[in-house]
Fold:
Amino acid sequence: MTETTYFHDIQVGQRFPLTVKRLGINGEGIGYYKRTIVFVTGALPDEVIVAEVTAIAPKFVNAKIHSLREKSAQRVTPRDPDYYGQIADTELEHLSYPAQLAFKVDVIRQALEKFKPRDYQQYDLRPTIKLETPYEYRYQAKFQVRKINDHVAAGLFREPSHELIDLTNFNIQRPATMQAIRYTVQLLEELAVPIYDEQQNSGIIKAMAVRESFSTGHLQLTFITNSRKLPHKRELLSRIQADLPQVTSIMQNVDQKQLAAMENLILFGNDYLTETSANLAYRVSALTLLPTNPPQTEKLIALVQTALQLAPHESLVDAYCGSGIFGLALAHIASEVRGIDPLPNAINTAQQNAALNQIENTHYQVGKPETILTEWAAADFTPDALLVTPPRTGLDQPLLHAILASRPQKFVYVSCNPATLARDLVTLSEAYSVDYIQSIDLNPQTAQITAVVRFKKNKLY
Structure:
């Protein structure tokens, strides 16, 4: 029998008993029925369930729990029962926190087993570093804004759709961010500000974003709009300033299809908040890409510093440097820090942060890391140490080749995607062996994983 033949025996809506073997990379339960892999949302390892098929794909089927016959000892009651499992960032709320930490190591192990980089079975996979309080940790939020039953609503889309779920509470968010969003929702309705209609591509307010400074408690509120127009702007701003004094920055992000890039307008205050980390101050704008959890980010910076073990005479290249938080924290040790990022706004922010902290041994350049590294090598600059913090897509082939060409003695990779990390390790293991992989939980209740990889240069390469 072929694999396809088995699928002929399974239909959408069909129910069957299933023992869940493990969790997949997105936090879904995995079991097997008639030698077919079954992904079950909300199911946990060792549970016996009755699964109900919801969709059939070429190599697997999706299902939901129809009934739970044997419950895992690690199952807990979600704090967001009304929308748990329906929106992003709630996929592990039913799993105890110690089990979440173990899961995040296991996902890295699964990725390594799939791609099989050299000597992967000998890697030191260290236990995930926990967040002491795994709720109310997220200092920023971006909620879509629509109308539901003629009332203004703000929240996230039900996956995998564009049906909005109005979030009156969200337990991973900081209370101050939720307070600002819920107040502004009421104000938009009271003032009858036009709300975006996705089907008609009409209306003004498409989304709202709120960011809180961990160090000052100040908030930045950003309206994402379909037009430069903002009806009732004067009253909107005056009411927010009067009733939410912690909001010290209000921005408008104009998101129109005909614009080549988003336009950002300052409506009130500065266009940034000030954050502190590792005894340094940082300017955080509406466009700044930063981890959503400042206290845990400090631990991450310390992990990077420990992994690199820089000496005073050594230079560091910080690739995908963003706003510069890692490189600037290491600048007092290094002889020189050079940062690279493809985004001009990121480089501009990093330069501002260096000036803000009176750090003079840094140099930042806009461009693709592989291009800049090659240019610097041609000018006889080879870094002693390299830090890469790529997006979820990981390192592309030109950058991998540039790294192998320069072969820095010290090399650390901060990953936010175990799959692309394991893929990249196949190439990197040609020149480096993995000393250890240390995972750290920046996003409890979610399947998101951050890991610090420390490399050792192979002697024979």
Q: What stands out?
A: Residues 97-115 form the longest helix (19 residues). The radius of gyration is 24 Å.
